[in-house]
Specification:
This protein is an alpha+beta fold. It has one domain. Helix content is 63%, strand content 11%. The protein has a five-stranded antiparallel β-sheet. A hairpin with a 3-residue loop joins β2 (37-40) and β3. It is elongated. It starts with a helix and ends with a helix.
Length: 161
């Protein structure tokens, strides 16, 4: 049981770190303008220098929503980690980690909404680019989505022994 708790804890810490990286890094999409590679994410568009990501005025609320949900997912993931540690030392024997599991599933939902908004609105290539594909930040966000779901379910099922 101790090994299972340690494993879940390590995966949860890895998920928090990957969420930070995927939200901060501007490599959600990568393309080429014929001369050099261009990448963009939630915040900036980068080639040799980085500038503020410019989107159509109709897509601005969608970008802000994706940014907000990714930040919320980080916050909920950290709160779930702190709650797990607190419940580990205060929870009675035989009780389940319901609060931690619920918070982790809220984090999972925030990741789902944030990445889905980005997928629906911003995976088209920017004007002037020859080709584009998903970058590592986008893929990390979907991996965090899967990890958060699995961890959330495990917390709900797991009993303190």
């Amino acid at each position: 049981m101790l090994v299972l708790l340690a494993g879940i804890f390590v995966v949860h810490i890895a998920t928090v770190i990957m969420l930070f990286v995927s939200t901060i890094a501007n490599v959600w999409m990568v393309g080429s303008d014929g001369i050099r590679n261009v990448s963009w994410g939630l915040w900036l568009q980068c080639n040799t220098t980085c500038v503020q990501l410019s989107v159509d005025s109709g897509d601005e609320p969608s970008l802000r929503a994706a940014q907000a949900f990714m930040i919320l997912s980080i916050i909920f993931s950290v709160i779930a980690l702190v709650t797990f540690i607190a419940q580990l030392f205060t929870l009675e024997k035989g009780k389940r980690f319901y609060i931690t599991g619920a918070i982790t599933l809220v984090c999972w939902l925030c990741i789902l909404i944030g990445v889905s908004i980005y997928t629906a609105r911003f995976t088209d290539s920017l004007p002037g680019l020859i080709s584009s594909h998903h970058g590592y930040s986008f893929i990390l966000a979907w991996i965090c989505f899967c990890f958060s779901f699995v961890i959330g379910i495990l917390y709900l099922v797991l009993r303190k022994k």
